What does this fold into?
Amino acid sequence: MKITWLGHAAFLLEGSMKVLIDPFLTGNPNAPVKPEDVEADYIVVTHGHGDHLGDAVEIAKKNEAPVVCIHELSRILAKKDVEAVGMNMGGTLRTGSIAVTMVPAWHSADVEDEQGNIISAGMSAGVIVSMDGVRVYHTGDTDVFLDMQLIGELHKPDVMLVPIGDYYTMGIAGAVKALELVRPKVAIPMHYNTFPLIEKDPEDFRKAVKAKGLNVEVVILNPGESYEFSR
Ligand code: NI
Ligand code: MN
It folds into this structure.
């Protein structure tokens, strides 16, 4: 599976299908591509915040790609003329050659409706995307929580996409603890250096993982760069 970081929490997973997660491109100073240049079979959105929902509606329409998200957000998106697939914690959507499992995250979520009202968008989630025998855990925005150990045991992710930016999510120390609980083979840091509030040096994360003696390879990508995981 080819994993491309599109900056912030946006990733494109490419194998026998193309799965786009949290496509915040417009307004993302580090976005390496424009929404009109992204191709996807499925779009997965972890929660309704603008830096995750991003350009999902526009990309979904252009690609005729369904948007997979928490039930409440799917009801909001369905009104915007996209195919929204609502699901909930612990559930798995199996379609084509992919499976998307929704897991908890400790965070919040809202969206702005057409009239400018702020409305609740259901819970915030993490997702595990399985494709071609590879499992990728995108934690969404979250603090570290002890149940990540269960997520690791049940879903055995190969690759974990983990926020390190602090302030809106866990920071480096929390992310290291999260790796200890989940025990993926590879970790790719995300949700940092997009805005001044979340400036972090990913090398500090790598050093902290090493200092803890964890058997996890930290892969640091620049926006637009890809990593190929094969088992
Ligand atoms: Ni958020
Ligand atoms: Mn966020």
Summary: The mean pLDDT is 98.
